[in-house]
Amino acid sequence: xxxxxxxxxxxxxxxxxxxxxxxxxxxxxxxxxxxxxxxxxxxxxxxxxxxxxxxxxxxxxxxxxxxxxxxxxxxxxxxxxxxxxxxxxxxxxxxxxxxxxxxxxxxxxxxxxxxxxxxxxxxxxxxxxxxxxxxxxxxxxxxxxxxxxxxxxxxxxxxxxxxxxxxxxxxxxxxxxxxxxxxxxxxxxxxxxxxxxxxxxxxxxxxxxxxxxxxxxxxxxxxxxxxxxxxxxxxxxxxxxxxxxxxxxxxxxxxxxxxxxxxxxxxxxxxxxxxxxxxxxxxxxxxxxxxxxxxxxxxxxxxxxxxxxxxxxxxxxxxxxxxxxxxxxxxxxxxxxxxxxxxxxxxxxxxxxxxxxxxxxxxxxxxxxxxxxxxxxxxxxxxxxxxxxxxxxxxxxxxxxxxxxxxxxxxxxxxxxxxxxxxxxxxxxxxxxxxxxxxxxxxxxxxxxxxxxxxxxxxxxxxxxxxxxxxxxxxxxxxxxxxxxxxxxxxxxxxxxxxxxxxxxxxxxxxxxxxxxx
Length: 518
What we know:
By secondary structure, the chain is mainly α. It has 2 domains: about 1-35, no CATH class; about 40-260 and about 360-490, Serine Threonine Protein Phosphatase 5, Tetratricopeptide repeat (Alpha Horseshoe), CATH 1.25.40. Helices cover about 45% and strands about 5% of the residues. The chain has helices at about 10-15, 25, 40-50, 60, 70-75, 85-110, 115-135, 150, 160-180, 200-220, 230-240, 265-270, 280-285, 295, 365-380, 385-405, 415-425, 435-445, 450-460, 485-490, 495-505; strands spanning about 65, 140, 160, 250-255, 275, 295-300, 350, 360-365. The protein has a two-stranded antiparallel sheet. A two-stranded antiparallel sheet has the order 2-3. A two-stranded antiparallel sheet has the order 4-8. The longest helix has 26 residues, at about 85-110. It is globular and about 65 Å long.
């Protein structure tokens, strides 16, 4: 055990008491000093710090959300790779806790049979974290990341994003397959532990296997534009392993009034009247009479005070803030809806009592996403069944997304009659020849609150069909394809940063990650 605190005494005193120093180190060790760390506690911290993105970054790019009072956010977080306010959150959140702690956990438990499942779960979360990092930035530190304490590496090299994905694929497959119902229960697990009702190792392992294979399915679909044959092979491996089949399988975190949802905190606590739902997203919900709308979108008598019941959640009465406008230019728009007499504008905001609540859950991998990816795989004939199977999976994905709202505060389960009516509409029902657009538009809706996945799937699939932000003047009339590296990297890890920028072809927002092909 490493001693990290001991008294220091003058040399003369040491000599004077040389004959009495037996047991000196033991007696003079600080009894309150930390000498070891429980890897199970580190694991809990990792789970609670996994990144799902940011309302003002990914969900602004895919036109679900907007900060009307920040021209930077309104125009797509400045469409400037050097805007550190929006480049750093995913980087810092991922490297400061998950990557660092996971490296420590893995080093501690790798050869410990009593921690066998903790080891495999850590590998799965490490794969999730680096998928997020690659999808966000492209080339990132991987093989040398998080090893400052273990190996003294403080300036890690950047690995090629394609190489990282190849290793993540191996890690996910191996770790998920190696999870064992005979290995001990992982008490520190807050995703699939006792708090979720999984009380023993058999139930816990079953859930992690479904999560691991569902994440493998997601990874496989990332290759759909780059290498369809490879994508098909990985998708089939994931399906054979066993993906999610019920909403209880969702990989999520629950929150309460003491342990609050971190995603929604800035929007709730810093001038709520700054924040609005974007027009394309609101129009999609209200144009189809989506029963999820009332839990997502609302208007308030005073947008600066979001406590209490929203004034109005009727979908037809909601109006999203137009994309490409800020708090000044919106007033020149011919159909401008006007300022709110209390604060802000007469446009729709998050429903802060439900989806935007401080106690709302956060989803990392969901049944709804899994079903919709499988529906696309069926359309592509990567799994059997063709259109009939795709249609069944598509409808099950929509139903699964609606069922998630039973976990939110102040929300009731969406009745089957509402779901059936919604799914039967011509604008929603799956139609031959238009399957990919319809499936991935539903994926866009189902991924609200998980900005990383919504942004990644938008780039991969090209859907929903959105119009590039007219405010943009740095993206050649297109969309952002990544976030820029944090500014601090060029100063503290300059040589490796410069090598990565050269490899990527620049550090702008138009550089594409390796799987994002035209």
